[in-house]
Amino acid sequence: MRVNGSLADRKGSDQVATGKSTSSSNSKKNKRRQKKSAAMPSAVQRVFETCKEVFADGGPGIVPSPDEVERLRSVLDAVMPADVGLSPNLPFFRDVGTGGPPPVTYLHLYECPKFSICIFCLPQGAVIPLHDHPAMTVFSKLLMGSMHIKSYDWVHDPRVSNQRIKSSTVTSCAVLDVLGPPYDDEQGRACTYYRGNAYSNLPGEGPTLCGEREEDHAWLEERGSKPDELVVRGAEYKGPRIVDH
Which among 92, 200, 223, 237 would be 20 to 30 A from 118, CA to CA? Predict the structure, then answer.
């Protein structure tokens, strides 16, 4: 957490010394302001503290209770771009003219075995290909801009019926993601990328749709590795720091 406010208060107190009673009064007011500032965590710190409680007993395949989901969602809803040091004029949101889809910038905020917090910054036209979140609960907050999301549920497979796959693009945007638990190749939670195809193009005999429309379904083809068109570069996160007590 930053302490700029406290430093400013102390400087102001040093400068006001016109009389003993005024100095004493201002000193008391400054102390109260310092205590109030110290008791008010940053928006990012509130997200972190809430995640610690929401995912305290979590693990692969364990979804927090509806009350806990709503609690974390309300905390994320209150986060604004300025709370994480973002603004539209940052270079993350400019198309650098590589000839292909512009690169996505990844900002790492925190990670532990229970959950991770990160931000993806996408220039206009950037695309994150279809991918999954195996046995993970994902919270996403669109901090700025607009995006198109394509999401699928697996059909007739209860083991992964809640698994989501998404893709995003439209204007430059920033997305705050909370993953619980985070990706972990060694624990079997590697990220798998997919190529979407129309259901009508499914080779062979597809599953019965039980009266549902074909146009509402697709078949997904696994891609062998991270798609070449996806370029993710890391950058230093310059917003308020998370303090893990």
Answer: 223
Residue with tokens 């075995």, as numbered in its chain: 113
- The amino acid at 202: L
**Six-digit token string for 37:** 């500032």
Q: Are 124 and 168 in contact (CB under 8 A)?
A: no
150, 193 Cβ separation under 8 angstroms: no
Q: If DSSP codes are grouped into helix, strand and coil, which group holds residue 22?
A: helix
Residue 115: which residues within 8 A CB-CB, separation 6 or more?
A: 51, 55, 58, 178, 179, 180, 181, 182
Q: How many residues does the chain have?
A: 245
Chunk the chain into consecutive blocks of 10 residues (it has 245) and report each block's average pLDDT, rounded to whole numbers.
Answer: 30 31 47 56 97 95 96 97 95 77 93 97 90 93 92 64 55 94 93 88 73 81 87 94 92
Distance separating alpha carbons of residues 182 and 161, to the nearest angstrom: 19
Of the candidates 108, 111, 197, which has an alpha carbon nearest to the alpha carbon of residue 152?
Answer: 197
Distance, CA of 190 to chain centre: 18
